[in-house]
Amino acid sequence: MKNKHLVSITDFTRDEYLRILELAADFEQNPRQDILNGYVIATLFFEPSTRTRLSFETAINGLRGRVIGFSDSGATSASKGETLHDTIKMVSNYADLIVMRHPMEGSARLASEVSSVPIVNAGDGANQHPSQTLLDMYSILKTQGTLEDLKIFMVGDLKYGRTVHSLLQAMSEFNTTFYFISPDELKLPSAYKLHLDKIGLNYYEGNDLTEFLSEADIVYMTRVQQERFTDPIEYERVKNAYILHKDMLEDTKESMKVLHPLPRVNEIHPDVDDSPHAYYFDQARNGVFVRMAILTSILGVK
Ligand code: CP
């Protein structure tokens, strides 16, 4: 994995996913180490973030690396018209690795083509969010004891939800049965279904969250991505399509966990938070260890 870009989850192989998850478990046991001493990592966030930026920066600080970067591109020369191409060219002079979030689909691939240092995609529009996928996989492995043969429900905005797109690609390597639950307007793009058809994986697509819920191993809730809608009336129509309440979980498997990449808006009622099925805050915590594993693998120090 040394010097590899992580732009799409498919840039890593199944063995590489498993290696990252193993390393993350080691970091969870021992999260304070000196192994990034002397390294500088840039976090360039052209789009808002709480978890992704702060967990990358916590990971870097925990391993004694240095962080440069920005969380508001309005305070950079991008606001004077500097192109992404030139920004990345410049920052790759200053840092050993660049973590970047950008609203434009394909921006991370573009950055990887001009950067002299590895790029980690921290979300590019509605396209991909591969480091989130690896922490989702780590959370699934920790709670289910396996990645194989699970029934995973993906619920909400399957059209624009980049975390869904990355996760289904990665989990399709592990004989997952997917249940895609969304309003018709926010259905999974057909390219992802064609991929599942091609590799012969079963999936179910529908609108009713409760119908098969008792079969779920993982329920992966997602926010309706208001910022990707061009028509505000359309957003208003679908924004509360699914709201998970605690009483809906009564007949589910004891081991079933509710995940959410966060932030949530209305799609998980706070009464779920004290349910034994709620795992989304632990999931976000797992992000620190997984991002330690990603950074150290790509920098070749682990
Ligand atoms: N899960 C996630 O990407 O959260 P942030 O947008 O807060 O980084």
Explained architecture:
The structure is a single chain. The chain is built from nine helices and nine strands. With about 300 residues, it is of the alpha/beta class. The chain has two domains: about 10-130 and about 285-300, Rossmann fold; about 130-285, 3-Layer(aba) Sandwich (Rossmann fold), CATH 3.40.50. The chain has a five-stranded parallel beta sheet, covered by helices on one side. The model has no long low-confidence stretch (mean pLDDT about 95). Bound molecules: phosphoric acid mono(formamide)ester (CP). Phosphoric acid mono(formamide)ester (CP) binds next to helix 2. Phosphoric acid mono(formamide)ester binds near residues 50, 52, 261 and 263.
What layout of secondary structure does this protein have?
Layout: H1 14-29, E1 40-45, H2 51-62, E2 66-70, H3 84-91, E3 97-102, H4 107-114, E4 119-124, H5 130-144, E5 151-155, H6 162-171, E6 177-181, H7 190-199, E7 203-206, E8 218-221, H8 232-238, E9 257-259, H9 280-298
Parallel strand pairs: 1-2, 1-3, 3-4, 5-6, 5-8, 6-7, 8-9
Helix pairs in contact: 1-5, 1-9, 2-9, 3-4, 5-6, 5-9
The structure holds phosphoric acid mono(formamide)ester.
